[in-house]
Design goal:
This protein is mostly helical and about 50 residues long. It is built from one helix and no strands. It is globular and about 35 Å long.
Length: about 50
């Protein structure tokens, strides 16, 4: 079901930009067609420190 959700967003990507806030990583196949940023907070080493 989770993978189908991302496929749906891919199909709608020409109409809008999507920001998904989720604690679990997306299915590996999503990396084939999406840009994924991990927000790691102040203590994280790899990823973005914040959203704004």
């Amino acid at each position: 079901m989770k993978e189908r959700f991302f496929i749906y967003l891919k199909e709608k990507s020409a109409e809008a930009q999507f920001i998904i806030i989720e604690n679990d990583p997306p299915p590996p196949s999503v990396a084939d067609y999406a840009t994924i940023y991990s927000f790691v907070g102040n203590e994280g080493e790899e990823g973005r420190k914040g959203f704004f």
